Amino acid sequence: MIEHTLTVAGVTVDARHWIGGERVASAETFTDVSPIDGRAIGEIARGTPAQAAAAVAAAKAAFPAWAATPRAERARILHAVADGVEKRLEELAVVETTDNGALLRSHRRGVMPRVAHNFRFFADWLLKLDHEDFETRGHTNHVSWDPAGPSVLITPWNAPLMLATWKVAPALAAGNTVVLKPAEWSPLTASLLADIAAEAGLPAGVLNVVQGYGSEIGDALTSHPDVRRISFTGSVPTARRIAASAAAHLTPLSLELGGKSPLLVFADADLDLAVDLAVEQYDNAGQVCLAATRILVEDSVAEEFTRRFVEKAGQLTQGDPREEAADIGPTIHPRQLEKIDGFVRRALDAGARAVIGGHRKDGRYYAPTLLTGVTQDSEIVQEEVFGPVLTLQTFTTEDEAVRLANDTRFGLAATLATGDRARAERVTARLVAGTVWVNCFFVRDLRAPFGGSRQSGVGREGGSWSFDFYCDLKNTVTAPNGWSQDHG
Ligand code: NAD
What digits encode the pLDDT tens for the residues 265-312? Predict the structure, then answer.
């Protein structure tokens, strides 16, 4: 007998799928494990291709009515979802931390409020989305945003509910129906979101959640002929598979992928600020797509920067992410820990030096690491580690800094520390990155576009870019005459 209801830190989570407004079990399950202590949390429904197809069918059936629902009503329901998130904020925070090991205090104060904000933001934007009119030779060109249809949203484990709602909220606001497939290493908050959405009055079938392994059910979702949009956040290899699968029906894709972003520290920078920005890259144990893991420092200040970095990083507390004092939690999974350690071992074998860290700790914890003596073409500089591992290289000229910064296959983000505004403008213009931060990190207005260049992604989301993606834009051209009847 499979137990479907889990109790996680006192919170009840239904671990079945949510399809067409009903909980649906699978014959098989997989075990969800907490990265905090490696203990089993419980059994999660292991979706099958047939269940993935049933979720798409439910989304298809619910689409006409949801697409026809007046915008104000859609917006009202999305605000009610945000209310539900706020009401259950503490529960969501505790469950997410148990499930993926990121800091509880970040979930409480930053992440879950932002989850609610995602719904409010796109609900409000929907009401401001104007239908544009142009006129040419007396003909009216009327541009409208038509809901595109059932949308498959596939998300990773490092910021599960935040990244899911960054897609769910605009897709629903646009009038699309959704099949959400959360990552198998952090499946729980997606299930709670289904409860919250139902309580908020979202009609059955408008949001569906299918649990399971991407390798088993991904293809059934991404190659399905009735799916009109696929939005994916995750790794480059999975994106390739999804793109190939989506090619069957030329389904439009949005891809938010990995990165190997640089932090450029110029000699004219406020060095304490630069050090703070560098140490911040250990947040979420380095499991952040945007993390500036390649620190590039002008050589005249490299020694002093390193001294202050080591001092500051030495003040970080690594431990149980539920503790208020913790700064760095565990790595999500033993496989991820193995991967991180492999990267570091190979770098050390190739001649790198660990200024700090360079080794595992107990359980799933990896010591915050800074490696020097690395070459630009080495694996550790070119490949995404997705752990608390930074490299430090030096440069002598601005040209060299830009060349090193741009010299990977990624282009997700870049961060600059400089006191010279003209330099900031010059360098920013030459960097290949979806987001550039100057003397700051991680701050972002949801109205601005978000996404990656090169292999860090395809497309942009945020503000009107999200609506452009989730809608079919239509231009209706009307002649000035020709009416035999006009009731207008
Ligand atoms: P992943 O690619 O292994 O998995 C992501 C999701 O894809 C999971 O839900 C997984 O089940 C699913 N999946 C796996 N195979 C599939 C298939 N064949 N078809 C359909 N879906 C499939 O990524 P991950 O390890 O969960 O996440 C880490 C990666 O995500 C890193 O590369 C990180 O940089 C990236 N990321 C990017 C952003 C961004 O916004 N650019 C944000 C967070 C994470």
Answer: 999 999 999 999 999 999 999 999 999 999 999 999 999 999 999 999
State how far the Cα of 205 lies from the Cα of 66, in Å rounded to an integer: 9
| Ligand 1: residue whose CA is nearest its atom 30 | 234
Q: Which residues pair with 356 in a beta bridge?
A: 370
- Say if ligand 1 is within 6 A of residue 336 CB: no
289 is catalytic: yes
pLDDT of 102-114, one tens digit each? 999 999 999 999 9
Determine whether the shortest distance from the Cβ of 434 to ligand 1 is under 6 A.
no
For 207, the token pair is 């949001």
Q: Residue 124 above 80 pLDDT? A: yes
Mark whether 400 is an active-site residue. no
Q: Which pTM value belongs to this model?
A: 0.97
Rounded Cα distance between 76 and 351, Å, is 59
The closest alpha carbon to 170, from 484, 460, 385, belongs to: 460
Structural domains in the chain, CATH included, are 5-257+452-475 (3.40.605.10), 262-438 (3.40.309.10)
Gap from CA of 232 to ligand 1 centroid (Å): 7
